[in-house]
Design a protein that fits this description.
Layout: H1 5-15, E1 26-27, H2 34-45, E2 49-51, E3 54-57, H3 59-83
Antiparallel strand pairs: 1-3, 2-3
Helix pairs in contact: 1-2
Length: 84
């Protein structure tokens, strides 16, 4: 089973968030690509972010962002070890 285009767009939104602090949110502007606007709205509906245009991560959103960012690092590290 593969990630859907919608899930990939949601994961990409989660990558924008800084995990260093909970005091830093994001805003997806109305001029952003339609898939980004739709993705952040879905994350809001799922309870992962505080506003329809981004805002801050909820506790569940922070956990999801941590997993997404960790997975990206693991895949990048694995790719680099294969190339060596």
């Amino acid at each position: 089973m593969h990630f859907t285009e919608e899930q990939t767009a949601e994961l990409n939104i989660l990558m924008y968030y800084s995990l260093r602090t909970g005091d830093q949110g994001i805003k997806i502007h109305s001029t952003a690509a339609p898939e980004k606007i739709a993705a952040v709205r879905r994350l809001y509906e799922k309870g992962l972010v505080t506003h329809q245009d981004g805002g801050y991560l909820t506790d569940l959103g922070r956990e999801a962002a941590e997993h997404a960012q960790s997975l990206r690092l693991m895949l990048a590290a694995h790719k680099e070890s294969i190339a060596s």
